[in-house]
TrEMBL record:
Protein known as: Isocitrate dehydrogenase
Location of the region described as Disordered in the Swiss-Prot/TrEMBL record: 313-336
GO MF annotation list: isocitrate dehydrogenase (NAD+) activity
Family: Belongs to the isocitrate and isopropylmalate dehydrogenases family.
Record's keyword terms, sorted: Oxidoreductase
Superkingdom assignment: Bacteria
Entry coiled-coil feature ranges: none
Database matches in NCBIfam families: PRK08997.1 (NF006529)
Biological classification of the source: Bacteria, Pseudomonadati, Pseudomonadota, Gammaproteobacteria, Lysobacterales
Length: 336
């Protein structure tokens, strides 16, 4: 039985890395059909909407989407299309793996950390943003709920158990933000008690950032609130070579969107030199979500072996290849 995926080709380098990714998926003979829909700057230029109803309906119908980076025009529409998608579909869990790959510019090796970030609450979503009439005072509301905290922490522990991971680190700022971060931490402690087989430790967010730089090997799964998760997950990407190797999954009860977490990079758009790995790794997350774990593993193995061989790598990885040739090199290994 075939599976239809809603595909957003994106802006800037988005179409280039999506084409390379779909070529690899097609080579894997997974039986996927694609429903191509628009969002972002391309959609705005075509129909005057950043996030057309047709796109939302397609994601709702297929329940899974693969998305390239989007550009939100300055001064138009939503503050962030990604935030709007998360809100619309209640994609509460943002899952960001950071795994070491061969032949990168990283200062570390052997990194294998997953950041599980609450995706719908907290300061990041900009609830109640306002600026005083004189322009001197800006404010917003940071809102954390017990429900939101409970479900993201439970997601992290259940994921850890399923993947055979041993430790979950709850990252917070409850020493200062005693109401919001305090509620998150107290809720996390209650959830952790349901998982006695998994070690749980707590760490203040600023110390977490320092420890990630000094001794990243101590971390396994990190779970935290929205804004802290945004910062920590990018820090973890820096440990393994940058955002070009950073995928992201946005998971909800009724839909899931998988993506490259980097930007649309308009400065190199059309040059054919963008690294497609982040989106390919997002596609691997999608395969796991769809129950195709072995296919996800063989896709990751093909990426690793291509990087080990330094075969047609893009310039950011020290190669002389291009987006298409890098994708072709991975395609040639994916069924091996």
């Amino acid at each position: 039985m075939s599976q239809t995926i809603a595909v957003i080709r994106g802006d800037g380098i988005g179409p280039e890395i999506m084409d390379a990714t779909l070529e690899v998926l097609d080579r894997m003979k997974l039986g996927f059909d694609y429903d191509f829909v628009e969002a972002g700057l391309g959609a705005y230029e075509a129909c005057g909407e950043l996030l057309p109803a047709k796109t939302l309906e397609a994601i709702s119908r297929h329940r899974v989407a693969l998305k390239s980076p989007l550009t939100t025009p300055v001064g138009e529409g939503f503050s962030s299309i990604n935030v709007e998608l998360r809100k619309h579909f209640d994609l509460y869990a943002n899952v960001r793996p950071a795994i070491s790959f061969p032949n990168t510019k990283s200062r570390y090796s052997g990194i294998d950390i997953i950041t599980v970030r609450e995706n719908t609450e907290g300061a990041y979503i900009g609830l109640g943003q306002q600026l005083s009439e004189d322009g001197e005072v800006a404010s917003l509301t940071q809102q954390i709920t017990r429900h939101g905290s409970e479900r993201i922490v439970r997601y992290a522990f259940e994921m850890a158990r399923k993947q055979g991971r041993k430790k979950v680190t709850v990252v917070h700022k409850a020493n200062i933000l005693k109401s919001t971060s305090g509620l998150f931490l107290r809720t996390a402690r209650l959830v952790a008690a349901d998982f006695p087989d998994i070690e749980c430790n707590e760490m203040i967010v600023d110390n977490t950032c320092m420890q990630l730089v000094m001794r990243p090997e101590q971390f396994d799964v990190i779970v935290t609130t929205n804004l802290f998760g945004d910062i920590v997950s990018d820090l973890c990407a820096g440990l393994v070579g940058g955002l070009g190797l950073a995928p992201g999954a946005n998971i909800g009860k009724d839909a899931a969107i998988f993506e490259a977490v980097h930007g649309s990079a308009p400065d190199i758009a059309g040059q054919g030199i963008a690294n497609p790995c982040a989106l390919l790794l997002g596609a691997a997350q999608m395969l796991g979500h769809l129950g195709k774990e072995e296919d996800a593993r063989r896709l990751r193995r093909a990426i690793v072996s291509t990087m080990e061989a330094r075969d047609r790598l893009t310039p950011d990885l020290g190669g002389t290849g291009n987006t298409r040739s890098f994708g072709e090199a991975i395609s040639e290994r994916v069924n091996g």
